[in-house]
Amino acid sequence: MTAAVTALPQGSASDRNSLVKPAGLVMLVVLLVALCFLSVAVGTRDVSWAEIAAALQGQVSSIGEAAVAMRIPRTLLAALAGGALGLTGALMQGVTRNPLADPGILGVNMGASLAVVIGLAWFGMSMAAAYVWTAILGAGAAAVFVYIIGSLGRDGATPLKLALAGAATSVALSSFTVAVVLPRNDIAGGVRSWQIGGVGGATFDTIQLVLPFLLLGFLISLISARKLNMLALGDDLAAGLGEKVALARATAGVGAILLCGATTAACGPIGFVGLVVPHLCRLMVGVDHRWLLPFSALSGASLLLLADVLGRVIARPSELAVGVITAFIGAPFFIWIVRRQRVREL
């Protein structure tokens, strides 16, 4: 009798727990939609609801409607880029089992940035599609380089060695980028503005260009969720359970590189989103990547939209680039993680 009585509340608690994650996902979707409306409505110029409604219907007869029409692609790009960066951070942390893994900290952003700058300065790159491919190749080369350097020596690729290799590589690539740009006054201004990271110049053409790469990256990432759960058990145990460890890492890595490279090509190197978001999402849903990845994508999109709106409001009538806002948020968070986690494995 006692067992039967205690079984009921346990089952009820289990049912409640099984509803928490889907409910949280729905809440994040609602928050994302609300932030999209906020992003369209708020800016350096005040607009009325009538102008917003008219602009959403394609009308641009007034200055307010034109302002809203310019914010629409900006909002879409911010959501896509934030989702991609949040997802990339979760993937990189899962692949490396490193709580400090992030496209910026591991040098992947700077690899993409340097590749684009070299293409502009030395090869006269002008085709829009070439920017995306070049950024993806640069991101991939930087990721492979950091992982190889971090794997040298005893104990292989430990979280601390990867973080140090990524930080050193990021500084070196940043210096190379400056060296390439300095003699080229014709591109220096545009490159410096792009390197801050922002979504202010978004257009539908830009979104159409990077969207296939982002969608492919999202698909590969979600397919990798189960593989990342296996990797979290440790390489030996994952291999013992039949998982091909190298292939699992490579698959998730390709998804991360596609997402990071395409985002960097469109927005510039935006840092810390991939670091902050996965940690916050683990507090909500735990370490199961089947939930962590979609939560990270939605949370990253929400964070970047919020940062973009704050950048417009704080510096009115001017704007702060979204990369500046995310750096203000992420830098203290990075210090907190280092102090709390002591750079141990996930």
TrEMBL record:
Its main location: membrane. GO terms for biological process: siderophore-iron import into cell. The chain crosses the membrane at residues 23-42, 75-92, 104-123, 130-150, 162-182, 202-223, 256-280, 292-314, 320-338. Keywords: Cell membrane, Membrane, Transmembrane, Transmembrane helix, Transport. Pfam families: FecCD (PF01032). SUPFAM superfamilies: ABC transporter involved in vitamin B12 uptake, BtuC. It is found in: Cell membrane. GO terms for molecular function: transmembrane transporter activity. InterPro entries: ABC_BtuC-like, ABC_transptr_permease_BtuC. It comes from the Bacteria. Belongs to the binding-protein-dependent transport system permease family. FecCD subfamily. This is Iron ABC transporter permease. It comes from Hydrocarboniclastica marina.
